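Dear colleagues,

As part of the handover before I leave the project, I'm documenting each prediction I ran so the next person doesn't have to rerun anything. This entry is a single chain, and its sequence is reproduced below.
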Amino acid sequence: MRARWLAAAGTVVAGGAAAGLIVATSGPAAGSGHAASGSSGAGQASGAGGGSHVATAPVVRTDLTNTVQVSGALGFAGSYTVANQMQGTAYTALPPPGQVVRRGHRLYEVDGSPVILLYGPRPEWRDLFLGVAPGPDVAQLDANLIALGYATPATLTVSDTFTAATSFAVQRWQAALGVTVTGVVPAGQVAYAPGPLRVAALDVTLGAAAQPGAGVLAATSARPVVSAALPVGQEYLVHRGDQVSVTLPDGTRTVPGVITAISRVASAGSSGGAGQPSPGPSAPGGPGSGDSASGRSGPGGGGDTVEVTVRLAHPRAAGGLDQAPVTVNIVSARASGVLAVPISALVALAGGGYAVQVITGGTAHLTGVRTGLFSSSLVQVAGPGLRAGLRVEVPSP
């Protein structure tokens, strides 16, 4: 952005220094642009001193946003530990870290017998067979047998009772797995999780002794999320359900996201520059947004922070990356359908306020304006006679 420096009451100010936009100030410089005196809303344009050149830019009607940028990390939601419940001698198969295991598939193996992942909130703790005492673990098994296609709601009613229909479905399932068909589900043959598991790390090695109750692996869900540390002073900017955008590690792609959680506990941060404006414009705020101004904060910044979790609208955009650095773009202010001009078009009046040089019929006249939201390159303006399509004077590149 090329600002015009203007003399007003012995002070040099930049056209963009208003409404929260942080700009540098400087001492007078010869031949640096236009100056205007007086505080009237309109007047005769002053001539360009020192042979300086000017150009024009249109008044536009657009949407403006201010964006706070917060550093974050791309990871996966949830944290789970899978404990072995199967009796046996050794682990004979283990999944590699990074593998995603889904319902009905082998999670690991003990003495050649697979431990199958099923979905549900309750861990397996007993053998299930025809005549076992009723319980919600039976209903959980019924639901999985139907989901896997070994029964239908018409042939198996989900209930706490292990029925003959449950036994028949178990036999079909065991036959498909290639294990001994008994109609009995022994403790340890299945492991329950809320959904698909992504293996994060192994706690045992292949061939190690299989100990009931010992942890086998650490896992997450397969759903990518972004975690960002937001300074507590900016917590008011975000709410659950707010739309944000996330700039991916390549720095060029931006995907939409939704804030799903905001921690209620603040974490102490180290001293630094959290919350300071970034030196340049933020990443695009998404379809339909206009220009945006930004401030950057995040891990390593000063002061306490709260963790904000963001769900990506397009999970595949994450590309399987884990703990990769990203930037979360949070809209802190928005103005829709407003008139705007380049910030460099503003002329500071000696008596205070701003004006723009409107070009009509080959001549320029000074028109006083009220400024609103500042973005990285545009500023919201309102003034007598201003409309979209008019051209205003700006410094030439």
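Helices lie at 136-147, 164-177. The radius of gyration is 32 Å.

All the best with the project,
I.
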